[in-house]
Amino acid sequence: MSETTGLGGTILVIDDERNIRRTLRMVLEGEGATVLDADSAEEGLEMIQRALVEGPEGQRPIQVVMVDVCLPNMSGLQLLEKLCEIGGGTPPLPVILISGHATVTDAVRATRLGAFDFFEKPLARDRVIVSVRNALRHYQTEAELRSLRARARREIIGESRPMQELLRQVIKVGGTRARVLIEGESGTGKELVARAIHDASERRAAAFVKVNCAAIPRELIESELFGHERGAFTGATAQKRGLFELAHGGTLFLDEIGDMDLNAQAKVLRVLQSGELMRVGGERPIKVDVRVLAATHRNLRELVASGEFREDLYFRLAVVPIAVPPLRERPGDVALLCRYYLDLACHENGITPKRLSPAAQAALEAYPWPGNVRELRNVMERIAILSDGDIEIGDVPQEIRGDPEEEAGAPVGGEAVVQFGEGAVPPGMSLKAFRDSVERAFILQRLSEQNWNVSKTAETLDVERTHLHKKMKLLGIARGG
Question: Which of 133, 323, 359, 401 has a 20 to 30 Å separation from 243 between CA atoms?
């Protein structure tokens, strides 16, 4: 919105003086704004609350509020306090306070409450227009941020603390131009994180170009990244633009950067340093404006130490390192992901929506998911396609639910397992069988106490969650099994 363009937007004016409301309406509508008005803070608050509920994601029917400080019953400052409560500490909309009897105390209080601006009557036309224009700009920036956050939440699924922290980092770094190194095990969703960073950036309308460095043969990677001229090598029958050029103005995502050979690393470093590249067989440099995001499942610091990765390139790429947590470190997210990918698989394959039985859900939650989210998604699609009706424990793959022969009270290690009450130890029972029986009964009791929440049970037992998973599999413990 330039200084010479109209205001646009919808402004709510709250003042008990009709002449003030009429004057502001004439000024603001003369600049292209839509004006709503109210003669009390109570009426204005109702209008704002309706707007916040009814407004679509990112945008709201009211963008700026102008309110008089001195109003009967509820004052403008009291209205601002209530808006802070609604907004969780800050007003959900820019609020401009106006007053005919302003005091320093009122101005300080308004600032502390997050008022966007504060000025006195009589109103100066130019002052009003400048203030409202700035408030509309602020609102638009916040609306875009809300939309980006909502989009990131849709793509990055998870309510656990590690995932909420990851989401916070994505939104924070997305609005910058910094290069980001995304680290994490295979299947954790590093590409989703890279795309969310791109979508949260000012480059989101431009290209997002991805390349898997591990999937391109070493002899071709330079041509893929930087392009080549006609005749540069055998088979180069035409000029080709490289991925850096295709990503000009946007984002280039270098996945599995740890598998790039040292020669290509040196050329990538030169592009990052100079902003220029040379096509294979080319004679003149080409300027490119690209934000580079990189990802790897390998430990680049160890590769640097062993001489397999350039230290200078590492520091260029890892301006902001972000770690994507493995699924085993995200307690509570497995159930959410299972439901999401089950629904998605049914939708994509034209299958009637299905539900997970408690036993099936428990088995899926107890599995450590070494392949992370990628493995989980594939399993849920397989289950959705092969199962008849809702998902029962028998529909869960055997490698996930454990040995079907190991049920409660079944043999473990080839010897009878019993639950001990007041009876004597069965004759001939070995020490190992006795120990396994007692341990199994103890873990079952703790799982029951925690409603089969494996993470909470691990906490009460003071063991790692992965260790408890292994112990449960060894002892044949499975909910509903």
Answer: 323
